[in-house]
Amino acid sequence: MYEHQSMDMPKPGSCNIGDMHPYDQWLQTHHMVDQHPPTEAHILNSRHAYYGMVSYFDSKVGELVHELKRLGMAGNTIVIVTSDHGEMLGEHGMWFKRT
Q1: pTM of the model
Q2: Lowest mean pLDDT: which of 1-10, 54-63, 70-79?
Q3: 51, 52, 85, 87: which has the highest count of C-beta atoms within 10 A?
Q4: Given its phi and psi angles, is residue 43 left (phi above 0), alpha (psi -120 to 50 degrees) or beta?
Q5: Contact criterion met (CB below 8 Å) for 31 and 94
Q6: How confident is the model over 61-67, as a mean pLDDT?
Q7: Is 7 a member of any domain?
């Protein structure tokens, strides 16, 4: 669905650990990102997989809505989607669900 070579890279920001908020510094060292920074290939693979996961989930919600319409239940059904996952995808040097 997505061209790997067209994946966007994280927005530039200060990734220097010394410029980060103390809590973010702790996260970087706790998750060992300071010792094992991701390569460009890791970054692209992570972003590619995440975009694919979001698109897959979106398609499943679309199938649910389509089925509700087919059954004539869409007019009196509310679909609520919640999530607690905030993957940073390398934005501002941040990774994982940790913000």
Answers
A1: 0.76
A2: 1-10
A3: 87
A4: alpha
A5: no
A6: 97
A7: no
